[in-house]
Design a protein that fits this description.
This protein has one domain (2-202): Butyryl-CoA Dehydrogenase, subunit A, domain 3 (Up-down Bundle), CATH 1.20.140. It is an alpha+beta fold. The protein starts with a helix and ends in a 5-residue tail after the last helix. Helix content is 63%, strand content 15%.
Length: 207
């Protein structure tokens, strides 16, 4: 039972980490009719322009302004998704305020460091899950990993996710954005991975 619980927690951590990495909603900011969602690598703007024709017009305008962006209209709702690094380059080319460009670049750096930590944690979570699941199926392929290596993998899964979250947080520019679903999932993934390892280390097998 203990092994199944640990494997289930680590597997859930793996899934949540994958979803969080690709989520465009780690932070969200609402102002008037515009919602700006920011992930690790992309920024998404959702705007209610009230009329379908106006949305089509603005779609063409934004596609010209932001060549690397994906712009879509759903009725009167315009959605633009662009890589944070591409957004920073476009802002610099448009000679935007220097402080805004620097904040954008800080956000891009924060996202990159967050991705490194989350991807590293995800890979180790996959290995940790295999170490727990394969023996249940009678496969001893992972038994060749030394005990110390198994501990490093188990602790490293949640540890790298935590490190990625901390680096992302401390490198972010100041702002008033609110926590969004992607960040909650990343925190849950980190907690599940560390929780699984804590159970393995400190709870006896017969409990």
């Amino acid at each position: 039972m203990k092994g199944m619980v640990m494997a289930g927690m680590m597997g859930l951590s793996l899934i949540l980490a994958g979803i969080a990495i690709f989520s465009n909603s780690w932070l969200t900011d609402e102002e008037d009719d515009v919602t700006t969602n920011t992930g690790l690598s992309n920024q998404q703007m959702v705007m209610d322009v009230e009329e379908d024709d106006a949305c089509d017009f603005m779609k063409e305008m934004y596609e010209e302004m932001f060549e690397d962006a994906t712009v879509e209209c759903d009725g009167a709702i315009l959605t633009m998704t662009i890589g944070i690094s591409d957004l920073c380059e476009t802002m610099d080319d448009m000679e935007a305020d220097k402080e805004e460009v620097e904040d954008c670049e800080s956000g891009a750096t924060a996202g990159t460091m967050g991705q490194i930590g989350m991807w590293g944690g995800l890979v180790l979570a996959l290995l940790a899950t295999l170490m727990m699941v394969l023996p249940m199926a009678g496969v001893d392929a992972m038994d060749q990993i030394p005990e110390m290596g198994q501990k490093v993998i188990s602790w490293g899964a949640g540890g790298l996710m935590l490190l990625g979250l901390l680096m992302w947080y401390f490198l972010l520019p100041d702002g008033d954005s609110s926590i969004a679903s992607g960040l909650w999932m990343a925190g849950a993934a980190m907690s599940m991975a560390l929780g699984s390892t804590l159970i393995g280390q400190f709870i006896p097998e017969n409990e």
